[in-house]
Design goal:
about 200 residues, 8 helices, mainly alpha
Length: about 200
């Protein structure tokens, strides 16, 4: 009985050893795979092309682009469609402040390599550079987004101006004042004409 118990313990120990070895091999495979992915990522970053070189511009646009939370291709489509459901006020403000300048558009248009090799800012500029008249489009979208609110704000001014115009048009005293001003102007013009 004791021999059989020892054999069972030995068998269990061998099974535990095999399980531990299998687990260790799986862990090593996972570590190797993660290391290979890290090396590939580092190589890709080393191979990436940097078109825009102004560090401050890269940082500012990079932070803004990160807040957009959509693909650059879908953003391009939304701009071309003027999709108000997607283009929020915040997105339009970000686009207005961070859209590529004419010089940046020319810079990225000159690049004909893989877009995947570009950093986020350069890729953002490259995709948006294909939109015709980008700056004016963004300005128009911004105006369109704020026009209703701006008109509402000006409504009181328009109402007051209309009331003032009606008051002037209906006032007999104002009409008489205008007649006097016109007569004085005509007299002065007539007098100047004779002195010349």
């Amino acid at each position: 009985g004791e021999k059989k118990a020892l054999e069972e313990q030995l068998h269990e120990a061998e099974l535990a050893k095999e399980a531990t070895e299998r687990h260790a091999e799986e862990e090593m495979a996972t570590v190797r795979r993660e290391a290979d992915e890290l090396v590939a990522s580092v190589k890709k970053q080393a191979e990436m092309v940097q078109l825009v070189t102004d560090a401050k511009r890269l940082r500012n646009v990079g932070m803004a682009v990160a807040r957009l939370k959509c693909s650059f291709e879908s953003l391009k489509i939304d701009i071309l469609r003027v999709d108000d459901a997607v283009l929020t006020d915040d997105m339009v403000r970000i686009l207005k402040e961070n859209a590529p300048t004419a010089e940046e558009i020319e810079l990225v248009k000159g690049y004909d390599g893989s877009v995947e090799m570009l950093g986020d800012v350069d890729r953002f500029f490259k995709v948006l550079s294909t939109i015709p008249d980008l700056q004016n489009r963004i300005k128009c979208i911004a105006i369109r987004k704020t026009l209703r609110e701006d008109l509402k704000d000006m409504q009181a001014d328009f109402t007051a101006f209309g009331a003032a115009m009606r008051c002037c048009a209906e006032s007999a005293k104002f009409a008489r004042l205008m007649e006097v001003v016109l007569a004085i102007g005509n007299y002065m013009n007539g007098a100047c004409g004779r002195w010349e």
